[in-house]
Structures are given as C-alpha cells and as structure tokens.
Design goal:
Maltoporin, Chain A; globular
Length: 730
C-alpha cells in the first residue's frame, strides 16, 4: 500500500513540477492565519493536515452551504441519512446523531452536523482539520474537525443586501449590517432566508407533494467589545429554523427476500407500487421537517504580560422533528414520526503562553447535555406479508432521556530544540457520565384503541448508567527544511464515546479508539506563489463503531478492529495576478478486521466474516480541482470565472460491500461567474451546480422489513442568479 502511494506521489509531484515551472508563476499567495490548534498560526507552519478557505475564496467558489465544502477540501465528504447529516473526513463521520467529526462555530461545539445550519451564514473563513484531534478537541473528534469562523464587526460601517433566484423555484435573500457602535464596541447582524417552492424529489404518489422543499431561515448577532487593552469579549446570538419537506427516502435497489418472514417480497399479491428511478419515490403520507436551533455564546479574553486566558461559555437548544412515510411504496406503510431534542451547556477555559522556545496551552472543558428522543413506526394499514401480523400496528421506541456530563483537562506544548527543529506533546483526560432511560413497545391498533403486545425491555422504563474515561495523547516532531518548507511526523489518539441504542435493549456499544500516525510535508515555492502540502497517514481503530439496521431498528454496534491508510496531496497556486488554481487528491485503502455480522437482507446466510471489506463512506480515490480567472473590465469593474470539480470512486454504504450497497464513481462540477462593479457597490453571480446533472446517492440504509435498499439522492443540476448591493466599506 505505502509503496503504491509513494510511487503515485512521485508521479504527481513530477507533473506538478513541470506545470509550476511556468514563467507566469509570480504572484505571492495570501497567507491565511488559522486557530484550528487553538493558537494563531498559518496553514503552512501548522504540523497537521489542515485546509483553510477565506471569505473571498468561499465567495468565488459559491460555497454558501456546509455540504459544498467537499468540492474544495481533500478527504471531506458530505452525506445524508434520514433525519440527519453526515460530515466525513478520511472515511470517519457521523451516524445516529453520534459525531465522528467535530463541528464548531467560533469555538462553540455544535451538538451534531445536522444542527450546524447556522454556521454557513456570513463567514470569515472555514478551517478543516484532518485526523484525530483527541488532545485539543477531545471526544467525538476521531475523524477531525470543521471550524467555522464568523465574519467579525468592521471598523467602519458596512452592509449588504442580496437577493437570488434558482431552479426549483428557490428564492433566497441575505442581509448584513456591520460597524462600530462606539469607540470600543462593534456589532454585526446577519440574516438569510431561503424559500424553495418546488421539490427536487418527485413524489409518484398521486395527491401528495414533491419532497425537498420548504423554508430555511438563519439569524446571527455578533457583538464585540474591547473593555481595556488587556480584556475583550464577544457575544454571539443565533437562531435557525427549517420548515417544510426536507427529507426523503427512496428505493435505490429492489430486493426480494428468499426467507419466509424475513422481508416483504415485491411480487404481485398486493400490487404495491415501487420505483428505482433516480430522484423519484413514493411517499404516500406525511412529509414534515421542523427544526429549530438557538445558541448563545460568550467569549472573553484576558491578555497578560506572559500569558493569556480565554473563556468560551455556550448554551444551545436543538429541536429536530421529521415525519415521513419511509417505505418508498404507494401504500405508505412505514409512517415514521421522529422527535429529537437536546439542550447543551458547555464551558471551556484555555490558558496559553509563549516564550522564545516554548509554546503551550492548558485547558479545561465541561459539557452538560440533556437529550430526549421519541421514535415511532406506525403501520396504518394491515401489512399482510409474513413479516407482520394481519392488523395495523405501532412500534414505539422512546428514548425518554439521555443526560450526559463530560469533563476534560488538557495540556499541549511545542518546544524549539533549535531554530529548525521543534518537538510537540499533548495529553487530555476525559471523563463522561451518561444516564439513559428507554423502552421498546409494540402495539396492535384497533378502533377501540391500542393494545400492548410486547414490552421488549420489561415493565417500566429501563434506566442504564455508563461511566467512561479515556486519556489521549499526541506527539510530534517538526523540521524546517528551509525558510519556506517543513516536514513533520506525528502520533495522535482519538476517542469516540460509547452509548446505548434507544431502539433495542442490549447493553449498547463500547467506546471507539484510534491510534494515528502521520508524516507531512509543506512547502511554499516560486516566491510564495504556490503552496504544496502532502500527508501520509495510518490509522488503527479498536472497537470501531458502525451504524446498522436490524429489522426497522437503527443501531450502533462495534465492528472490532479497522484500518485506514492513505495519502493526501493539496495544491494552491496563483499562476498570475488574475489566475488561481487549487487541487487536492486523496488515495486510501481501508479494511475491517475480524468482523462477524449478519446481513439483515440475507439472514439465511447467517453470520458472514467481513474481514478485509472496505469501510463505509471511504472511497479509494477522491479529488477536487478548481480554477478561478479574474478579468478586469474597461470600466474598472471585474468579472471572475470559477469552475470546481469533485470526484470520488465507488463508495460503499454498508459493510457487506455488495455493489448494490454502493454508489459507483461519479463527479460533480460547479460553475460560478461573479461580476463586481468598478466602485464595488454592486455584484452579481450566475451559477450552475452539478452542471452535468449527475445522479448519485449520498446515503443508504436498509433492513429486512423494507422493499429494498433505501437511500437519499444528491441534488440534481441547479442554475441560479444572485444580485448584491453593498453599503459602506469593509
């Protein structure tokens, strides 16, 4: 594996060397300062695989949604499952609201990727850290972290009003107002609204609306204050609402069960309508999405002579409800309302300092999270097939509560052995206490009322307690090859918490741990016009966590050991003052270790040995490439053209690695044309996302009680236009 990777790297590097020898290479790249490792540093001096996009780069590429980051950052993929979102880095992501990649907004940890809708509004920059971040970020950051940094109040009055229209009758607007309130206080207010009048998933059930439409609204207020030369504070208030029909589940591949009582055969007796056609489904029943998110965060910073203190206090309310007929047939048999809510209080304190040779940070973190879930599958008609009794039923899986208290302390430092050599080390101690109460009921539905048939977990609410603790460490060595290039080698550990499935009564799943090695190279060449970054990584997982569906029950289980090896290569280059290119490629090999598991679609085969199978959501090859050209107009205005393409090879969504469990290789190309007036008072954007109208699946789940493999489609081609009026100056 490593030999093949190195051989590929040499070929790519040689090709880049020929390309970059062009005499056009003369414009120095803008250096982006990041805080991903909780200290200010440039991307090129950070001993970690990290990518950063400035506000200007986000605008040029038309990135205004968290899902679009995958078109600009190596190894980052964005998927979807019913009721949730999945941010994946190097094959590690989220499922069942259990994050594997941490998402933050100005240092405030988001409950999960689905709640992160507010983060895409009015950004100053985005940082993506790849690899386990167990020391500085702790729990549930074994895949990496995505940090959104909100745009800050401006020194002078600035404002903008933006309106747009796109395919599927989508009308959008955005408003920003920024400036000083007084000599020491600044304010920035931003709001956005999207109204999608047409759905892009066609509902074939007569009399029912198409899916993937509705409204999305975000509002954020940011207030900064400098109380003295040594004390400053920032207050962030945010609210996000999503209403409409923003969920869908479609049959991607039909399945005929060969075991009596293990599934629902699709042949004639009941004459049920189904379809495998892309971007189409049957949804005979409700399709309701109702999400609300509120956050308040206070960040305070004290600067002293030799050290600084930073405090981040946050409170978040996250409400997520969706109701959908999830069987994909014209019967509407699986009527599925799902309610999830959590309230999260977090407190982090960092104390950091720097001397001539030592750079250090000490921190403490506390989280109190109270979650409630109520999940029901209703069968409004008598099912008939052998999988169910011949009368309507209701399966109720309430997770009455889940209270989690997590505490951690950490220390991280870097020491300069010489002008060119530095060593780093870090340690984090995490303790987590979780109390959970849940149950599982099956009712028969009669005109006179529901009759309890099964109380699977026994009488009353089952209450369980989980106490977990883990110590994660990191170590690194950095060497400056020259004034403009460096190498690093690092070892890091990650920790993903365990838990109890709300949909069964088993003991639950164990924590997941990872040992990760990485060797990296970063260089700024051609007088700073080009930056080149490469990383080779090797992960060893223990008690690797996977999402499964047993019957109609989505659970998390441990798959034992797993391994990930790969290489990343990333390039940013200003070929000339008006021509900019970027590219990134990731090559990975992944495999499960000793893993016995039964496929719920083929239970008659019994337990299968899956050792050597590829991990879910982990393509062998993925790359992104983009180019931006800016032309100056005779009247002093400018016109820029950007094209970005993202490719990934076959992606398996289930551990059994059947071709029907996967999405074949595909590429998505986006085009943006931006115009700016000479006085910079106006701008316009014409864009086309997925210009080739690629049909691809972004997530898949299935069970033996459904008619096939159920999945979620990626968005088809969309063409739109936006107009913006600016006021004041940035």
């Amino acid at each position: 594996m490593i030999k093949n990777i190195l051989r590929t790297l040499l070929i790519i590097t040689a090709g880049l060397g020929v390309f970059l020898s062009s005499p056009l290479m003369s414009t120095e790249m803008e250096e982006i300062v990041v805080t991903g490792l909780k200290r200010e540093a440039s991307v090129m001096t950070t001993p970690s695989a990290i990518s950063a996009l400035s506000a200007e780069q986000l605008a040029a590429k038309g990135i205004d949604d968290i899902s679009q980051l995958q078109y600009a950052v190596p190894s980052l993929h964005f998927g979807s499952d019913l009721g949730g979102k999945n941010v994946t880095i190097r094959g590690i992501g989220e499922f069942n609201f259990a994050p594997g990649v941490m998402v933050t907004l100005d240092g405030l940890v988001q409950p999960n990727a689905t709640s992160a809708g507010l983060t895409q509004l009015d950004l100053g920059r985005v940082e993506v850290l790849r690899g386990p971040q167990g020391t500085l970020y702790g729990r549930n950051a074994s895949g990496g972290a995505v940090n959104f940094v909100a745009a800050k109040p401006t020194d002078q009055f600035f404002g903008k009003v933006q309106v747009g229209y796109a395919d599927f009758d989508q009308i959008n607007g955005e408003f920003v107002l920024s400036g000083p309130v007084s000599e020491n206080v600044g304010l920035r207010l931003a709001a956005s609204h999207l109204d999608a009048g047409e759905g892009w998933i066609e509902n074939l059930s007569p009399g029912y609306d198409d899916l993937m439409k509705g409204e999305k609204t975000n509002v954020r207020l940011l207030v900064t204050a400098d109380f003295s030369e040594s004390f400053s504070a920032e207050l962030l208030l945010g609210r996000s609402e999503v209403k409409g029909s923003w969920e869908h589940q479609a049959i991607i591949h039909e399945h005929v069960s060969v075991g009596a009582g293990t599934g629902l055969p699709i042949d004639a007796p009941w004459g049920w309508g189904i379809t495998e056609e892309p971007l189409k489904t049957y949804n005979r029943g409700p399709s309701i999405t109702d999400r609300e998110y509120e956050s308040i965060a206070l960040t305070m910073k004290w600067d002293f002579d030799s050290f600084s203190v930073k405090s981040i206090t946050g409170h978040q309310d996250w409400y997520n409800f969706f109701h959908i007929a999830a069987d994909g047939t014209n019967i509407g048999m699986f009527d599925r309302p799902d309610y999830y809510e959590n309230k999260t209080l977090t407190q982090e304190i960092n104390i950091s300092g720097k001397t001539n040779k030592l750079d250090w940070i000490f921190g403490a973190y506390y989280m109190d999270d109270e979650a409630t879930r109520d999940f029901t599958v209703q069968f409004p008609v008598a099912a008939g097939p052998p999988a169910f009794p011949p009368f309507p039923m209701r399966i109720h899986q309430p997770m009455h509560f889940e209270d989690t208290e997590a505490k951690a302390i950490f220390l991280d430092m870097t020491y300069a052995l010489s002008e060119r050599v530095r060593v780093g080390a870090g340690v984090r101690k995490t303790e987590e206490d979780k109390v959970m109460g849940h149950d599982f009921f099956i009712y028969a539905r009669f005109p006179t009322g529901d009759m309890l048939l099964v109380d699977r977990c026994g009488p009353g609410i089952t209450v369980r307690e989980i106490d977990e603790s883990d110590t994660t460490i990191r170590a690194s060595v950095e060497y400056d090859i020259s004034d403009s290039s460096m190498m690093y080698a690092s070892y890091s550990e990650g920790f993903k918490v365990g838990g109890i499935n709300s949909s069964d009564c088993d003991p639950g799943w164990k924590p997941e741990t990872v040992d990760a090695f990485e060797i990296g190279y970063k260089a700024s060449i051609l007088n700073g016009a080009t930056s080149l970054r490469a990383a080779i990584f090797d992960y060893d997982y223990s008690d690797f966590q996977v999402a499964q569906v047993i019957g109609i029950q989505g659970i998390i289980a441990n798959a034992g050991d797993a391994k990930i090896q790969g290489i990343e290569l990333e390039l940013d280059s200003s070929i000339s003052e008006n021509f900019y290119v970027n590219a990134g490629i990731t090559l990975m090999e992944t495999e499960y270790g000793d893993f016995l598991n039964t496929d719920s679609l083929f239970v008659e085969l019994g337990a299968q040995q899956l050792s050597g199978n590829k991990l879910n959501n982990a393509p062998e090859t993925s790359f992104n490439v983009g180019a931006t050209y800016k032309a100056m107009l005779e009247n002093g205005g400018s016109l820029s053209f950007n094209i970005s393409t993202s490719y990934r090879s076959r992606v398996y969504f289930r551990e059994f690695n059947s071709e029907k469990d996967s999405q074949p290789s595909y590429a998505v190309t986006n085009v943006n044309i931006n115009w700016r007036s000479a006085d910079e008072g106006y701008s316009a954007r014409l864009y086309a996302n997925n210009v080739t109208d690629e049909e691809y699946v972004v997530g898949m789940v299935t069970g033996n009680t459904q008619y096939g493999r159920m999945g979620m489609w990626g968005m088809p081609r969309q063409v739109g236009v936006e107009f913006t009026k600016f006021f004041g100056s940035k």
